[in-house]
């Protein structure tokens, strides 16, 4: 499963098209995004909702809640999937054999602090 924010972070410096809820479209290069899906794009061509007017804009900020949909190159989706596989392989390696039943790390089999080395009884 590809999460939208992972997709956007991977799509940085890639061309994309954004359509807003009001019908305007923005085609350009994704410069940055944040956790609210706000986008910063550069070298943008803005098209009006009726499609008969165009503007060339050097840089634009798009608020995330105004986005209707995003169109990204297929290579970006493939890059995200490869990245997720790589992270899954790294997570599967684990951190060793564990620490037992919740005892503090680094005690080993020696005496427990505070018990003075006495036995059980």
UniProtKB/TrEMBL annotation:
Q: Where is the composition biased (Gly residues)?
A: 101-121
Where are the stretches annotated Disordered? 83-121
The subcellular location is:
Nucleus
Entry's Gene Ontology molecular function annotations: RNA binding
Q: Mind telling me which GO cellular component terms the entry cites?
A: spliceosomal complex
Where mainly found? nucleus
Q: Which UniProt keywords apply?
A: mRNA processing, mRNA splicing, Nucleus, Ribonucleoprotein, RNA-binding, Spliceosome
Q: What biological process terms from GO does the record include?
A: mRNA splicing, via spliceosome; nuclear-transcribed mRNA catabolic process
Residue stretches making up the Sm domain:
3-76
Tell me the Pfam families matching this sequence: LSM
Q: Which family does it belong to?
A: Belongs to the snRNP Sm proteins family.
Q: How does it assemble?
A: LSm subunits form a heteromer with a doughnut shape.
PANTHER family documented for this protein: SMALL NUCLEAR RIBONUCLEOPROTEIN SM
> What is known about what this protein does?
Binds specifically to the 3'-terminal U-tract of U6 snRNA.
Protein name, UniProt field = U6 snRNA-associated Sm-like protein LSm4
Q: Which organism is it from?
A: Vitrella brassicaformis (strain CCMP3155)
């Amino acid at each position: 499963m590809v999460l939208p924010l992972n997709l956007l972070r991977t799509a940085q410096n890639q061309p994309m098209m954004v359509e807003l809820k009001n019908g305007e479209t923005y085609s350009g290069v994704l410069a940055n995004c944040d956790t609210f899906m706000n986008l910063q794009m550069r070298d943008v061509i803005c098209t009006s909702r009726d499609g008969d007017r165009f503007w060339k804009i050097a840089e634009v900020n798009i608020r995330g809640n105004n986005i209707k949909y995003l169109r990204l190159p297929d290579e970006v989706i493939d890059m995200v999937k490869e990245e997720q596989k790589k992270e899954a392989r790294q997570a599967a390696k684990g951190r060793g054999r564990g620490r037992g039943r919740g005892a503090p790390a680094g005690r080993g089999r020696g005496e427990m602090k505070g018990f003075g080395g006495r036995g059980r009884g």
